[in-house]
Amino acid sequence: MKSSITIIALILGGLSGIQAARADIQGRAETPPPYCDSPDKPSASLYWTLDNIATLRREGKTCHTPPGCTRVACQWKSAIHVCNDKSTDVAPPCSQVADYAEHILNFCDPNFDRTHVQGLETDDENWYVMVGGSDC
Fold first, then answer.
1. What is the pLDDT of residues 39-48, one digit of tens each?
2. 39 CB contacts (<8 Å, ≥6 apart)?
3. Most C-beta atoms within 10 A of its C-beta, which of 13, 75, 82, 91?
């Protein structure tokens, strides 16, 4: 039987992207697992976050981010942000940001038994991805 993420990815047309994301994330330098469920932060809809992930992959551009945080995708109060702790800009591929957001979903709610999720995934180059609620 296929997992919920696989079924949802098939619906959104991204199974090959998910498989590539898993391989890329597994090949990264060791980083801590995503941080999940900050009690003082709002959560994002699982459905709209999956749609945001598919949109970032489909657009195929870079997610340019100056120092600080930039919202790179947002629908119905469900956002993906790239945050940059460097003093210079970063420009990760949006597909990589989507991979990190997907990793947050897979780690923070592996059975997809909740309707909302939030978390943070760090990169080893001083930037990170946040999934959570936000005013779009």
1. 677 888 889 9
2. none
3. 82
